[in-house]
Design goal:
This protein is α+β, with helices and mostly antiparallel strands. It is built from eight helices and ten strands. Helices cover 32% and strands 27% of the residues.
């Protein structure tokens, strides 16, 4: 059910908020619009306004999802295990960075404890054939440092040990992300052993 207040429209499990002052009062991070509903300086033409963060009390907590109570509105966030371990037990307060995934038939919120997790998630879903569920599986399959090492070092075997990730998918992830995510490690992508062999295999896949 939508919740209306002062001209703002809020939809549970995903939101388009047309009043950023309302969003700030409600503990919601707001992306793309200036106060009063005018386009902000970072707003891009055609870009939907989305929830960028949430702060609230934990209502329910599971390894793959949490429900966050923000002043009486419960938000269902899909989360990776790396975030789950940092979320307090029900009743505790927590801050989440949020990716809003919009499809024709639904809006899904994905919550993360750190900017690093969020950036890796967004990089993963930019790869052809890797959707949000697969990206969560990857983030839940190993620690972020180990994941980054596998990508930058072109470790197909290491990535393939994650349930649901086969060699072809691993090669594609390495080929498309080793440079993009190498900034999180001190190892430059051009110096990563095995990087040269991974690219042709990914292209063939």
């Amino acid at each position: 059910m939508p919740v209306r207040s002062g001209g703002g429209l809020l939809v549970c499990r995903g939101a388009t908020i047309r009043n950023s002052r309302f969003a700030i009062r409600r503990g919601l991070g707001y992306n793309g619009m200036a106060p009063g509903g005018r386009p902000g300086k970072d707003h891009k033409q055609g870009e939907a306004a989305v929830i960028a963060s949430l702060r609230g009390h934990i209502q329910e907590k599971k390894p793959d999802a949490v429900v966050v109570d923000v002043l009486g509105v419960g938000y269902l966030l899909q989360i990776p295990l790396s975030t789950y371990y940092k979320v307090p037990e029900p009743g505790g307060e927590h801050f989440f960075l949020v990716h809003t995934h919009v499809r024709e038939d639904q809006i899904t919120l994905f919550g993360f404890d750190t900017r690093r997790e969020l950036d890796i998630f967004r990089a993963l879903i930019s790869v052809r054939g890797c959707g949000p569920r697969t990206a969560l599986t990857v983030l839940s399959g190993m620690e972020t440092d180990a994941l980054l090492q596998c990508l930058v070092r072109a470790d197909v075997g290491g990535l393939s040990r994650i349930p649901g990730i086969g060699p072809k998918t691993a090669e594609r992830l390495i080929f498309e992300l080793k440079e993009k995510l190498s900034r999180y490690l001190e190892i430059p992508p051009e110096a990563a052993p095995g990087a040269e062999e991974a690219a042709p295999a990914a292209e063939a896949a």
